[in-house]
Amino acid sequence: MNSASLPTLVLVTGPEELRAERAVDEVLDTVREQQPEAEVVRVRAAGYQAGDLLVHAGPSLFGGWTVLVVHDVDEADDALIEDLGRYLDQPADELTLVVRHRSGNRGKRVLDRLRKDGARVVEAKAVKTEADKHDFVVKEFSAARRRIAPEAVGALVLAVGKDLRELASACSQLMRDVEGMVEVGDVTTYYGERVETTGFRVAEAALAGDEARAMALLRHAMLGGLDPVPIVAVLAMQLRQVGKVASAGRGGSAQIARDLGMAPWQVDAARRSSKGWDGPRLGAAIQAVAQADVDVKGGVRTEAAVRSPEHAVERAVLAVCRHRHG
After folding, report:
1. Which of 21, 65, 110, 261 registers the highest number of CB atoms within 10 A of its CB?
2. pLDDT in tens, 288-297
3. pLDDT for 126-136, tens place per residue?
4. CA angle at residue 125 from 33 to 103, to 5 degrees?
């Protein structure tokens, strides 16, 4: 590799901070492979003083390559926008300019100019849906040449999927500590006390009609101080997914997942859970869980709510198990 192959203009755009940080780090690694002594200078929109960027972009006293990372251009004032424009009019030799922009129209003139000038564009897209999180986990393992069972992906997303950085950290821990394929049991060992994972296991047992296991899991969760509200939410989600998938016909998992906005593993899990159910009994189970959702949130003072939110959840789980068996 020679210096001519190094990127000189890079635009990292999109709201997902973890992906953006990784994109910037990848640029730094690429430069340092050829220029190990490259200087890294970071400029931030907050507190920017007019002319600072052009000073940093000037030739170094000792020579060598510079990576100039400009953060938060979506929050930049006019001075920073103008200085970026001046730099692009006369770009420096031996310098990589990395511009970070989350979203919005602020700084759009700079973004358009970067694209026009041939900047490498990296999209840091938001990770919002369950399918997005599923794909993220699969790609984390694939990039490391490791394998994870589809059900384990689902359990991991349910356990730590609220925060992408935490999800990435969990992937790293499992890859570091578990040999061979990562299974559901491995996820449970590390993250089994998380509310979402516990709710997933309770729902799985309830939809299978395994009353003893469902109640044992639920009571263990309650003794551990877990909130009933998200457990009911996971149970409701699982029931809805069974209903949606059962109504979708016999297409392939991937196609149905795209049509329903789900991950393929969720379609497969819902199909397994749907065995033994019919429309009327599934509808009755959904109604029972919907009532529990009202009760645990204190919306209506039913008998179950008066007793306790925990009692409302127990009644709902028992109802699902019993509807499963008709």
Report:
1. 110
2. 999 988 888 7
3. 988 877 888 89
4. 100
